[in-house]
Amino acid sequence: MLNRFYYKSKKIILNSLIHIFLISVAITCVYPLLWMIVSSLKTQETIFKDISLIPSQLRLENYFLAWKAGGFGGHFLNSVVYTITVVFAIVIISSLAAYAFSRLRFKGSKLLFYMFMIAMMIPVPGSFVALFMLLNKLHLRDTPIGYILCMISVGLSVSIFLFKTFFDKMPQELEDAARIDGCSKFGIWWHVALPLARPVLAVVVVFNALNVWNEYILALIIFDSRRHMPLQVALQAFQGEFVTNYPLLMAGLTITALPIIVVYLLMQKYIVKGVASQEVFG
Known about the structure:
It is a single chain. The chain has 282 residues and is mainly alpha-helical. The chain is 71% helix and 0% strand. The protein has helices at 2-39, 61-69, 72-103, 109-119, 128-137, 144-169, 172-180, 185-196, 198-214, 217-222, 246-266, 268-275. The longest helix has 38 residues, at 2-39.
């Protein structure tokens, strides 16, 4: 009886400590985001004086001023086009490549796959010089196409690895049944493999969308003209040499963060399955 009470008490204490730790981590992660949103509704004079999370006066016009002063319209459209194009291309290319690496046996397949895996270990800034020289020779620097191709290459390796890991676990019987029904290899990928890979697909979409949407340094290297720049460059309008307009900067950051948050919330169920490697096939 005492042993049972001891183990039950130990379990309750352990679970309480775990929940306290997780709540602390959640607060640590959410508080900066909440502070950013609240600060975007304050004035330059009160942003550091008023530390409360409920401003005495809401300045909703900060969002309008930030959108207008930062020229967000064109940059926002650029980021939307870049993100959709890059994510779509990465999903198609990486899923096809991963399915080929997983199911087809051809000469040099392992070497080619390992080359993609080695590319994961190279930090993106380490390839800036090579990308700059390559785009110059191809006359693609300062063009949206050059930027899109670079961003596709950045996200391919991780995406191929995620898809291949999933396809390796997919039962062969599903493909055999589809083949009996008359599906080609391409048809099996499209009608069987890709629909079953929705958890991994959600992870790949959000991971790459986040990378493209928040990219800043590579855009500065590739682009000379400001009209091709993504949304993150617009935030420079609020940072002067001596003075920074913090309320408008926080409003701009809120605007840039909102689309990614919406995408994450829409795909949260599949992301949890993909990250937790939930067993899809019973």
